[in-house]
Automatic annotation (TrEMBL):
InterPro entries: UCP026631, YdbS-like_PH. It holds the Pfam family bPH_2. Keywords: Membrane, Transmembrane, Transmembrane helix. The chain crosses the membrane at residues 55-76, 194-213, 245-268, 388-415. Residues 75-153, 270-328, 426-504 form the YdbS-like PH domain. Signal peptide: none annotated. PANTHER family: UPF0699 TRANSMEMBRANE PROTEIN YDBS, UPF0699 TRANSMEMBRANE PROTEIN YDBT. It comes from Luteimonas flava. This is PH domain-containing protein.
C-alpha cells in the first residue's frame, strides 16, 4: 500500500495563515511522554502500593494527569505558518519560541505512521537539517493529507529552480515521480533470510536478561532448561550418537525459528518498500503496520556503500546504502524511529539494479569502474598479521591447559593465509576525475565510493607496520559519515602510489567547491 501524492498543496496549506496541529495530537504527545516515564510511574504504583502505612495509591495518577496537562498545553501553544520561502513555527506561551526554517535548508522530510496513526489518518512529520541533535521542527501530528502536502511544498520550493515559471506566470508543476526500486513481498522475505536481525534481537534480549535478572538465577535457569532439553532428547534416543543427532535437530530448529523471526522483522520494516526520484529529491516509503516516508535531496548524498555477503551471492542480491549530510541521532525523546536521513536506498536488489540506481542518482555513467588498481604485492602478508598474532596467543592459552593439544590451533593459519591472499587479490581502488572508489573483502564483499565534489579532507597515514612493509593508506572524509560504518580509505598501497593519490586528491579538493 502506497500513499498518493496530494494534488494541490497550496489549497491544503494556504500562506499567511497560522495553523494548528491535528486536534488529536495531544494524545500522541501524551503516549510519547508516558513511554519516557512509564518506569518511574510503575515503580510508584506497584512498589508503593504494597505498603500498609496508608500510602496513597492514587499518587501516580497525579503524574499521569500532569502529563495530560503538558500534552494539551503543547497542542494549544503550537502554531506553524507557510511563508513564501520559509516555514515559521511558534511554540510556548510563558517561554515563547519562534523558529524560521528556510525550505532550502531542509535536507530531509520524514513522515512516520504507527498503526494508531494509520487508524486515525494522521502522521508525524520531522523536518531535519544537516546538523544538530534534534529535528528543526517536529509536528506531532498532522492529517496525512496535510503532511504529504507539506512534503511536496518543501520539495517544490526547496529546489534550486523553484523560481522558474511558465510563460503565463503560473508556477511549473512538480515532475512526476520515477520509481527506481519497488520490493515485492518475496524480495522482503529474501532480505529476512539474508539478514541477521533476528539473531541480533535475540542476543540483545539474552544480554538484557543477564543485566536485569540476578546472575545466579539466570545461571540456574539455563542449567534447568539444559537438563530438561537433555532429558527430552534422552527420551527419544538411547545411544550417544542418537542423542547428539537429536540435540543437533534442536539447535537447527532454534536457528530456523531465529531466521523466521528475521523474516518477520524485515516484513514489518520493509514491506511495500518503494524508492522514487521526484525531480532532485529521493523518496523512500516502507513499513507494514507502521509506515514511514522519508525524502532527501540527491545532492545531500555524500558516500555510497554496496555490500554483498555469502547469502547475498546465494540469492544473487546486493545491498545499497548511502551516507547523507543529515545527522544520525535520535530526537532526544526516546523515539526509536528517529534516525535522521535515509540509509538504505536498496535493502536488497540485483547487482545490476544497484549499479543502475547509482548511475541514475549520482550521474556517474562510468560506474562501476572498468579498471581497478591492485594493492601492494605484500598486502596479503599485512592482512594476515592480525590473524597470526591472535592465533599464536590463543594456542599459547590452550597449551597452558591442554599441553601439546593446544598446538592444533595452528592448523587455522593455512586458512588465514588463503583468506588473506584472496582478499588482497580481489581488493582494489579506482581514482578518476569524477570519483574515488575502493573495494574490499572476499568472503563478505564491500564497495565504497564518493564523488570528488563530496570530499572534505584527505589524509595520508602510515603506521609502524606500514613503514616496515613500505606501504601507506589514504583516508578520505565526507560530511555526515556514519561512525559505525567502514570509513572511505585506500589501504595497503605502495608509498609512491599513496603519496601520488594524496597529492592529486588534495589538489582536486582545494580546487573544487564543496557540494553538500
Amino acid at each position: 500500500m502506497t500513499t498518493p501524492e496530494p494534488a494541490a498543496p497550496q489549497a491544503l496549506l494556504p500562506e499567511d495563515h497560522e495553523r494548528r496541529l491535528h486536534p488529536g495530537s495531544w494524545l500522541f504527545v501524551l503516549l510519547q511522554n508516558l513511554r519516557q516515564f512509564i518506569v518511574p510511574l510503575a515503580v510508584l504504583l506497584f512498589a508503593g502500593g504494597r505498603r500498609d502505612d496508608g500510602y496513597p495509591w492514587w499518587l501516580p495518577m497525579i503524574g499521569v494527569g500532569a502529563l495530560v496537562v503538558v500534552s494539551v498545553w503543547q497542542y494549544l501553544t503550537f502554531r506553524y505558518r507557510i511563508d513564501d520561502d520559509r516555514l515559521i513555527v511558534r511554540s510556548g506561551l510563558l517561554e515563547r519560541s519562534v523558529r524560521q526554517i528556510p525550505y532550502s535548508r531542509i535536507h530531509n522530510v520524514a513522515i512516520h505512521q504507527t498503526l494508531l496513526h494509520r487508524l486515525m489518518g494522521v502522521a508525524e512529520v520531522r523536518l531535519e537539517s544537516a546538523g544538530g541533535t534534534k529535528p528543526e521542527a517536529q509536528m506531532r501530528v498532522l492529517r496525512m493529507s496535510e503532511a504529504l502536502a507539506l512534503e511536496q511544498l518543501i520539495r517544490d520550493r526547496g529546489r534550486a529552480d523553484a523560481a522558474v515559471a511558465a510563460p503565463d506566470g503560473t508556477p511549473l508543476a512538480a515532475p512526476e515521480g520515477t520509481t527506481l526500486l519497488a520490493l515485492s513481498t518475496w524480495e522482503v522475505v529474501k532480505l529476512g533470510l539474508i539478514s541477521n536481525r533476528g539473531l541480533i534481537v535475540v542476543a540483545g534480549a539474552v544480554a538484557l536478561s543477564f543485566q536485569v535478572m540476578p546472575e545466579r538465577a539466570m545461571g540456574r535457569l539455563l542449567v534447568e532448561y539444559g537438563r530438561e532439553a537433555f532429558g527430552y532428547a534422552s527420551g527419544f534416543a538411547t545411544t550417544w550418537m542418537a542423542k547428539g543427532l537429536v540435540l543437533m535437530g534442536v539447535v537447527a530448529t532454534a536457528l530456523v525459528l531465529i531466521r523466521a523471526f528475521s523474516v518477520l522483522l524485515s516484513l514489518l520494516r520493509y514491506h511495500g518498500f518503494r524508492l522514487q526520484r521526484q525531480g532532485r529529491r529521493l523518496t523512500v516509503e516502507r513499513g507494514l503496520l507502521g509506515r514511514s516516508r522519508s525524502s532527501v535531496p540527491r545532492r545531500r548524498i555524500q558516500a555510497w556503500t554496496q555490500q554483498e555477503g555469502v547469502l547475498h551471492r546465494l540469492f544473487a542480491r546486493r545491498t545499497l546504502e548511502i551516507d547523507t549530510a543529515s545527522a544520525r541521532t535520535g530526537d532526544g525523546q526516546g523515539n526509536a524511529n528517529a534516525q535522521r536521513g535515509l540509509d538504505a536506498l536498496a535493502p536488497i536488489a540485483p547487482p545490476d539494479t544497484c549499479d543502475a540506481i547509482v548511475r541514475d542518482i549520482a550521474l556517474l555513467p562510468s560506474w562501476p569502474p572498468q579498471h581497478w588498481q591492485p594493492l601492494h604485492p605484500r598486502a596479503w602478508q599485512r592482512l594476515m598479521l592480525g590473524d597470526l598474532f591472535v592465533t599464536i596467543g590463543l594456542c599459547a592459552a590452550l597449551a597452558w591447559f591442554f599441553q601439546w593439544w593446544g598446538a592444533l590451533g595452528l592448523l587455522w593459519l593455512p586458512w588465514s593465509m588463503f583468506v588473506a591472499r584472496r582478499h588482497a587479490a580481489r581488493a582494489g581502488y579506482a581514482v578518476d576525475d569524477a570519483l574515488v572508489a575502493v573495494r574490499e573483502g572476499w568472503w563478505s564483499r564491500t564497495w565504497r565510493f564518493a564523488e570528488l565534489g563530496k570530499l572534505q579532507a584527505v589524509e595520508l597515514r602510515q603506521s609502524p607496520l606500514d613503514r616496515r612493509f613500505g606501504m601507506a593508506s589514504v583516508w578520505l572524509d565526507t560530511a555526515g559519515a556514519n561512525p559505525l560504518t567502514t570509513p572511505l580509505r585506500l589501504r595497503f598501497l605502495s608509498l609512491d602510489d599513496a603519496e601520488r593519490i594524496h597529492a592529486t586528491l588534495a589538489q582536486a579538493i582545494a580546487r573544487r567547491p564543496l557540494r553538500w
